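A further point concerns the way the authors explain their paired sequence and structure data. For illustration, here is how one protein appears when written out as sequence plus structure tokens:
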Amino acid sequence: MHHRFDVLVVGAGGAGLMAALYAAKGGASVACITKLYPTRSHTGAAQGGIGAALGNVQEDHWEWHMFDTIKGGDYLTDQDAAEVFAKDIIDAVYELEHMGLPFSRTPEGKIAQRKFGGHTRDFGKAAVERSCYAQDRTGHMILQTLYQQNVKEGTNFYNEFHVTDLIIEEGRCRGLVAHHYATGEIHTFHAKAVVLAAGGYGRIFKITSNALTLTGDLMSIYYRKGLPLEDMEFYQFHPTGLAKLGILVTEGIRGEGGILRNADGERFMERYAPTIKDLAPRDIVSRSIITEIREGRGVGADKDAVHIDLTHLPREVIEGKLAEITDLARTYLGQDPVKDLVAIQPTAHYAMGGIPTDINGLCLTDGAGGSVEGLYAAGEQACVSLHGANRLGTNSLGDLIVFGRRAGTAAAQYARQVEYADMPADPERESVATLEALRSASGKENAAVIRRELQESMMNNVGIFRNGPDMARQVEIIRDLQDRYRHVSVSDPSRRYNSELIEAMELGFMLDCAEAMTASALNRTESRGAHDREDYHERDDANWLKHTMAYKNLNKPGDVLIGYKDVALRGYTHAFEPKARVY
């Protein structure tokens, strides 16, 4: 089946819905293709808020937000992206308000704001109240609001369609191919421009806050075409996930006054970040928690968690501003934050790296500015390098809104200027072959077993603390798993809603993302942001103040080629030089 639209958007989370909305506002015919019903997208799991220097509660300025973003990213952040972001997010938050997003309010009726890790006033002097929030359901409210706006603008939704291939010929993206869950049919979508916004790949780890659908599909498809993935070594572990489960416990819980405590009841962050303590950036807090556990001060039966303490806060704050996480703790752990300490542990949360783009979302092919004509990306799937080596809390929702809007606007503008390029004679061929090979395979390997081994080994060898021998071993583990994957078969030959088939295909995408990530991490011989090497403790600006560009070696399976891209440091309203991190 064939379809034609000016602009295609893959993914219906915050970035995808914002891109689709602005492409439609730009006069384009738009289709949004998504694995899920839009309001089930993973943006709905985001709890804490959107950082924006509104100054509703105390003095704040976009320059301070820009500084925190760059410093939090350990100076790997591209400063043009940080400046655009810190300015644009203020307008974008007010735009969401005008669309109807029900933000929490101050007594005066303004958008409420609260503290969040790594956000400071006056260039790092003290914590600032910058996070705009809707209780602890901010992401959910964004999805509802943007979906309604897209319905109003006439966006066409193709729900439960799984993209299996991008059609890129002669340097231009001409459309994509997708598998429809309900029928098992392959559909071809012809377009002038395509925006990729399908989220991250956190399911490569055993303990993760990511939904089951976040398997890095479009990153893998891009990578398989010999195109680069940028800064894949930088993966953020959120310090607070519910113990054993990984379900996110918002940073807002600490913004409201929650305190991390070890088995001795000690507020241990006073030793690691004496200035802003529990509100230090996520990489610092995650490492601090793991250090406490390693040194024997963990809690729980396996001593592999610590506590978050809210018991000193008023009940109305816990059950009002933190209603969702309170309900989750009661439901899944049987712990009531009003009276109990809640067990948490770091959880794989967010990819700083991904498909490289410029500040308008245009996908890049190398470190010198080459690009794929008509192809854009935004959100966690993209790497405009706003987040550098470590994303600040709240900047993910802001990233979705700001750069989703810019990508949608740019895609519509490009679509107005060009005609449809010809599609190849048989665009569905590779997708059909991949799915049929899995359906008809007679191999002895099981996708679920390989996936479990991948997740456990990545957690152990490329987790919060890393070292060369472990990561070198992980390179070989991934190669072995990739070889075994070639012998995977599925027991269910049906075509409609065949979840076993879909999960087997997703495993191939996950293995690609793990391959690029591990090779990039092994190659970077320093510690920076979320990438912490026990054999290279120091940040090395002389040799490593640059972005990694990982390319799949199409001539040698299992091999990764590494290139680089300069960090944008100067030439903006403010230029912040690398300096030591003290919180």
Observations:
- Residues 75 and 579 are 8 Å apart (CA to CA).
